[in-house]
């Protein structure tokens, strides 16, 4: 496994978990929004393992301040779309080129996994740029599904709901109250990073080989229509 982030926080914890499970972990520090850094990251992955079976597009940022969309700034728009959408598209493009190149290894199930959000389809007017960026990620997943199917590469769009991460820390008290009241989702608990990890592991292992380009909500039922 190759992990990449703009900072090394948490890398050692991940390494220990991977090695405890019998795997090998290589960390590469990279700003995914930097296209040159993307190429260096893929060079590191190919150098360490000779190829790649699954790319998980997990890099992303939330709005710095939740505010009325009538107050959205060009700077915030460009930041969100640049990291969440632009970087995701071009890293996937660069990875796909390598995966379908002549002589590229074909070791088991191959896929691109995209982490979008329930906000790809559920609008929040206090973070418009985030919603647009994640809707873009979902479309990218569909586009690559069509382009790569002939090469035996599947794509999956995982849509997290309310997950306990740094992204939700600023509004954790509000969400905790809403979750307890059943106002967020039928399953009345926080989603945990492990919930997303299980979904990724299941799809990357090839458990859904006849699905591609589709969305898999991991949201406690948040997107289920209710009356």
From TrEMBL:
The keyword Oxidoreductase applies. Keywords: Oxidoreductase. Gene3D superfamilies: NAD(P)-binding Rossmann-like Domain (3.40.50.720). One of its GO terms (molecular function) is quinone binding. Pfam families: adh_short_C2. InterPro entries: NAD(P)-bd_dom_sf, Sc_DH/Rdtase_CS, SDR_fam. SUPFAM superfamilies: NAD(P)-binding Rossmann-fold domains. One of its GO terms (biological process) is fatty acid biosynthetic process. The keyword Hydrolase does not apply. Belongs to the short-chain dehydrogenases/reductases (SDR) family. NCBIfam families: PRK12745.1 (NF009386). This is 3-ketoacyl-ACP reductase. It comes from Caldovatus sediminis.
């Amino acid at each position: 496994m190759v992990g990449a982030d703009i900072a090394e926080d948490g890398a050692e914890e991940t390494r220990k978990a991977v090695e405890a499970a019998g795997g090998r972990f290589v960390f590469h520090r990279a700003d995914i929004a930097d296209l040159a850094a993307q190429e260096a990251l893929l060079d590191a992955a190919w150098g360490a393992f000779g190829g790649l079976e699954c790319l998980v597009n997990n890099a992303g940022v939330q709005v710095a301040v939740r505010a009325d969309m009538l107050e959205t700034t060009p700077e915030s728009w460009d930041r969100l779309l640049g990291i969440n959408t632009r970087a995701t598209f071009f890293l996937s493009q660069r990875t796909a080129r390598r995966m379908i190149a002549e002589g590229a290894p074909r070791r088991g199930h191959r896929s691109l996994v995209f982490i979008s959000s329930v906000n790809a389809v559920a609008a929040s007017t206090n973070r418009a740029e985030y919603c647009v960026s994640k809707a873009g990620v979902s479309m990218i997943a569909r586009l690559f599904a069509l382009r790569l199917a002939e090469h035996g590469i599947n794509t999956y769009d995982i849509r997290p709901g309310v997950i306990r991460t740094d992204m939700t820390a600023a509004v954790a008290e509000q969400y905790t109250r809403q979750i307890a009241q059943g106002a967020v989702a039928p399953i009345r608990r926080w989603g945990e990073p492990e919930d997303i990890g299980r979904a990724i592991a299941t799809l990357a292992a090839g458990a859904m080989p006849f699905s591609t380009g589709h969305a898999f909500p991991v949201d406690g039922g948040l997107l289920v229509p209710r009356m």
